[in-house]
Amino acid sequence: MKSIYHRVVIEAPVEKVYEALTTQEGLSGWWTPETKAKSEVGSTSRFAFGPDYFKEMKVEELKPPSRVKWLCVKGYEDWVGTTITFELQPHDKGTSLFLRHDGWKEYTEGFAACSYDWAIFLRSLKFLCETGKGLPYPNHYK
Question: Which helix (H) or strand (E) holds 67?
Answer without folding.
Answer: strand 67-74
